[in-house]
Fold this sequence. Notes:
Layout: H1 3-15, H2 38-47, H3 52-60, H4 65-77, E1 85-89, H5 95-104, E2 108-112, H6 119-122, E3 128-131, E4 146-151, H7 160-173, E5 174-184, H8 192-201, H9 211-219, E6 223-233, E7 236-245
Parallel strand pairs: 1-2, 1-4, 2-3, 4-5
Antiparallel strand pairs: 5-7, 6-7
Amino acid sequence: MSMTTLVRDGVNRALRPLGVQLVRGHSDDPGIRPFLPARRVLAEARREGLSVEDYLDRYSAEPGATAATAAAMLRLADLGDKAARVCEIGAGSGRYARKVIAALEPEAYEIYETADDWLPHLRTLPGAVLRATDGHTLRETATGSVDLVHSHKLFVYVPLVTTAGYLQEMARVLRPGGVAAFDIVTEDCLDEETTRAWIESNAGIYTMTSRSWTVDLLARRGLSLVGSHFEPMSGGRTELLVFRKD
């Protein structure tokens, strides 16, 4: 049995009480982690009479978490009607995309998603433009072309080097005045209770990213922090950071 299989099986044992499991996306790159299977999530949401958003909120956060996060991001972004082009990294089920599209009505909504099984579902989004992804870059998005680039519940799982690469790419694709938003597990998310729970679970599925390092990295690329918002996550919380490009 391979080390990858052992790790996956260990994570799935930790997630079994939530009624979900991890499966491999289409990429073989070890820097790209597995995703929740579309068929199972969609089927269970339908069976329970829930939207995908409500189903995932109930199992991985708390009711209303997706809507609250999207509202906080849009409030801090303060884009008005200027978001003609939006890009999302790791859109997954599309639960955040639907909120953003409803609020901003962009002309194009670019999506980078490594999990093939979610792509048919994402194609139903208004204005969706699915991009070929390598799990590291936004190579099909032009420099300085995007009004809002965002990602949710992705950087909490991937290695730091993957997060750093994506942050650099987010800065590249933003137009002046554009907004980047994403959540990470920062120092401020790890209180004593959460730290103890992580140690006791020994699941090893989350990655912490330094808040000050993140702010400094993006500052060197012309982005300034405009605000943040804490949001719930299974086993703890994350911090949504919102930046504006000079």
